[in-house]
Amino acid sequence: MKKLSDQQRRRPTEPHAACCRHCPSAPGRSLDPEAADILASTDAMFLREMLFPCGWRPEKLCRGNWDQVQARLRQLEARGLA
Questions:
Q1: 16 to each of 12, 33, 40, 43, how far by Cα in Å?
Q2: In this structure, is residue 3 part of a structural domain?
Q3: CB of 26 closer than 8 Å to CB of 49
Q4: DSSP string covering 11-80
Q5: Residue 74 belongs to what domain range?
Q6: pTM of this prediction?
Q7: C-alpha neighbours within 13 Å on the C-beta side of residue 45
Q8: pLDDT in tens, 10-57
Q9: Which of 6, 57, 59, 64 has its CA 20 to 30 A from that of 51?
Q10: How far apart (Å, rounded) are the C-alpha atoms in residues 20 and 11?
């Protein structure tokens, strides 16, 4: 796995691990969802989960249910963690 830059390393990790459950930069993750996943995806997959740019590593893609990610971010913002 690529090393994170100093700027990215200073960003908070708790919201990332909580929200981006499939992101390669979350603890315990080693595989990157790649652009090929988007091309191979079916409409049913896009209805179930989405691929989106990672907020912590913009060159990578995260995979998850966008509504759940947004709900978790709102909870963290309310607690002052995001």
A1: 7, 16, 26, 26
A2: no
A3: no
A4: S-SHHHHHH-TT-TTSTT------HHHHHH--HHHHHH-EEEE-SSSTTSEEEE-HHHHHHHHHHHHHHT
A5: 13-79
A6: 0.28
A7: 10
A8: 454 445 555 555 554 455 544 445 545 555 666 655 545 566 666 666
A9: 6
A10: 14
